[in-house]
UniProtKB/TrEMBL annotation:
<dbReference type="Pfam" id="PF19457">
    <property type="entry name" value="DUF5994"/>
</dbReference>
<dbReference type="InterPro" id="IPR046036">
    <property type="entry name" value="DUF5994"/>
</dbReference>
<protein>
    <submittedName>
        <fullName>Uncharacterized protein</fullName>
    </submittedName>
</protein>
Length: 217
């Protein structure tokens, strides 16, 4: 269980002097059909040890960070709050199905979703995963909009383009199920963003599993 006490950590900047030390790769903007903004290869599973460098690296794009959502199944040394450079950042553990990604939400609602490369991944494989992130010019931050769970479900259903009422209802159920775990969250403003992150991952995994099943057939 996470420690309920805030952990005070001084942030440190990532050094990029050597190419092989680069552990974060972000695309400038998402293309249609993508659900992540980049990849991150932490050195360990100790979240509070790894966050300082990461938060420093993304601050130029997000501004001050308000919340980090992480997969409970992957990380150790977690806490309810994290203090970096005098600012309190909320840390929110997500269900195990989201263990391969991390969502970082800025104070203005802009957010990034990063694929987490396991720390014990072989160096060559990790670099290949980082290099697979497309490099595109940044198109500008999207406007922060407070969206209801129903609006999130509608957006995800429209993105799929199935025009299937039964499928739309299933996605809405997934969104409501994801939102239920945040009923007591201190920052309700970010719940729609977290719901979209969780359900988007679920849809992506479903599509991936279906494609693998078709290949095996």
């Amino acid at each position: 269980m996470p420690d309920q006490c805030a952990i005070v950590v001084r942030t440190a900047r990532i050094e990029h002097n050597a190419p092989h030390e680069e552990r974060l790769r972000m695309s400038g903007s998402r293309a249609s059909g993508e659900h992540v903004d980049g990849a991150w290869w932490p050195r360990s599973y100790r979240l509070t040890d790894e966050l300082p460098d990461l938060l420093t690296a993304v601050e130029g794009r997000l501004g001050p960070v308000a919340l980090v959502g992480y997969g409970r199944a992957r990380w150790t040394d977690t806490a309810a709050q994290f203090i970096a450079d005098g600012r309190t950042i909320q840390l929110l553990g997500l269900s195990g199905e989201d263990s391969e990604s991390l969502i970082i939400i800025g104070e203005d609602g802009h957010h990034l979703t990063l694929r987490v490369i396991a720390p014990d991944t072989a160096q060559e494989a990790a670099f290949l995963a980082l290099d697979a992130v497309p490099r595109r010019a940044t198109t500008g931050a999207e406007a922060a909009v407070a969206r209801s769970v129903v609006e999130v479900a509608r957006k995800l259903a429209d993105h799929e383009g199935c025009d299937d009422a039964e499928r739309d209802a299933e996605i809405l159920d997934w969104c409501r199920e994801a939102a239920a775990q945040f009923d007591d969250a201190r920052i309700q403003t970010f719940v729609p963003i977290l719901v979209e992150h969780i359900v988007n991952n679920r849809i992506f995994r479903e599509r991936h599993d279906r494609a693998r099943g078709a290949e095996q057939d």
